[in-house]
Amino acid sequence: MNKDIKLDKSIFRAYDIRGIVDESLTTEAVKLIGQAIGTENRRRGKNDIVVARDGRLSGETLLAALIEGLRKSGCNVVNIGAVPTGVLYFATHHLGTGSGVMLTGSHNPPNYNGLKIMLNGETLSGKLILDLYKAIINDELENGDGNLQEMDIVDDYVDHISSDIQLENELKVVVDCGNGIGGEVGPLVLEEIGCEVIPLHCEIDGSFPNHHPDPSVPENLADLIATVKACDADIGIAFDGDADRLGVVTKAGEIIYPDRVLMLFAQDVLTRQPGASIIFDVKCTGHLPKEIVKSGGLPIIWKTGHSFMKAKLKETNAALAGEMSGHFFFNERWFGFDDGIYAAAR
User: Fold this and answer.
1) Are 212 and 263 found together in one domain?
2) Would the N or C end of the chain have less CB density within 10 A of its end CB?
3) Is 327 a known active-site residue?
4) CB contact at 8 A, 163 and 37
5) Sequence-separated (6 or more) residues with CB below 8 Å from residue 65
6) What is the mean pLDDT of residues 331-343?
7) Residue 119 · residue 41 · CB < 8 Å
8) Would residue 56 show up in a list of annotated catalytic residues for this protein?
9) Is residue 94 annotated as a catalytic residue, yes or no?
């Protein structure tokens, strides 16, 4: 065991790595974590990995550290820059790497950052995340010299969605990105599918000056509700800090909670895939499984957490999954990962 390594074990959590920048999550820690991720990626027979970051103030510095660590393991890195989490997940499929790391603090306060990790199509959680910690402290890291490539994937992402989804009638939509990284791509996707978009707090600012970027908390939707009413919009859409979660508000300013949004998605998907499985987490209403059955689907209840949901989706080949936090995972016409922007388009 390498006693010289200073690494806070508490940042290795159930379904991601997360900590306070320059306290528990230091540049040196991110470099070592990058090398550990790269080591595990290579052990899985993969040499390439995509990386991206959200709009947090610490993003640029920590992404450079992550890339350095990944390359030190011998992995070749494709950096797609500052984009929403869904774009990173999309890139792992689109570029055929199967592996990617998203540097994001999600909906946490500005002084936090973290990493969401996918290797060879599997989102790391639980023991697999702890194994990265063990590999670092036991000095079991591979060494090499991977190369670096920069790439812009946003146009491909927007085209992929807009080629599949087009609205018959134009909707007036207010989009509140909470100054998160969804601020550019979110409105762009919705415009491309045929919406008239009224942007709200779409300037990317990692200090989150207007409100916390967490649409699961009703007070964070107050600006959106007021703007929807003031503009007489048809619907209001909100994203979290890395735009992998979705909040929805009606024309009348009522919040449609994620379990009810999932009912709507399930009804739609089951018209094309009757009998398909729909997964939801334990926090959802008891009405949801009844609605799924009524629509001709098979309800599956599962534990909360985006990585647990994705694993269950893969195992059961369900058509759709969702959880009360606002994560939605489409396996029908999409890749089975959580993406608030894609869910908004649907």
Assistant:
1) no
2) N
3) yes
4) no
5) 27, 28, 30, 31, 34
6) 97
7) yes
8) no
9) no
